[in-house]
Amino acid sequence: MKKVLLAIMLFAGFGLSAQTVSDFEEFDIDDTGFLNGSDGSGGFTSGNLFFPNNFNTAYSSWSGWAISNVTDNTTPGFGNQYSAITGIGQDGSPNYATSFSFGANNVDLIGEAEGKAMRGMYITNSTYAFLSMQDGDAFSKKFGGATGDDPDYFLLTIKGTRNGEVTLDSINFFLADYRFEDNTLDYIIDEWTYVDLTSLGELDNLLFSLSSTDNGVYGMNTPAYFCVDKLESTDGTSSVAIFDENPIKTYPNPATDVITVEGFTEAFQYEIIDQMGRKVLQGQEIGSSEIKLNALNTGLYYVVLWNNEIRKTEILKVE
Could you give the dihedral angle defined by the CA atoms of residues 132, 136, 142 and 143, in that order, rounded to the nearest 10 degrees? Predict the structure, then answer.
């Protein structure tokens, strides 16, 4: 089940010359299925991003980032710590990256991406964390507890730094959320899910931290792992426009059968995503256009509109 959980949704326009995607496909991985920094390299560069790694030779342990193409998404426990629950990279590609850290983990923007805005990335659970939350294990509880009513969650918080200062904005992505009154809505992420990073603005680093409702004497019991793929960094000049300066307009809001989009002079893409993170509509239009809502159920939706120059995300109420 796929969920999209951006705690902060801002309208952002970008003047972008190009983008680089860090997809880790340039790495050759041997039969072990992973690169965990045992070569002492200190990290991995993919595209215009650097993924730091710390390898302890005394204990053959690692933290930070590892590159993986492990496909085993059924074996529980620490022995399967490199695997994504999807068993494969986003869009069927072999390679992806796995994060493990007792505290905050980071990604450095380098080269032409340094000081520029990030567009977005794909995130999913590791197999280790997913099965631990789903079933419980010797160290961690089963999310929801015996009755399924425990309001558990596993939260990834993303921030950034610019010139040594931590960004005020943050993005909260729930890797699992059992806080719903209706237990049928509880979920653990098991698909690659796109997270828009544009609200963080111009960055030198991305900062990732995990928190959970399952904690003990020594800290968080939930395995501190998650996986990422296809991180989109910006090359060349970029600028972030405050929402009221964005030339794109959508109306009416609330809406019933159709919304009108104005401000694009060329082709643009659109997606409409429900509160459960499901993509319910998508397509392409040219210039000012109407988007038929195809009798969407009453509720709140995210409308994402973009082309090579502008991106806008808006909350739409359908009545």
Answer: -10
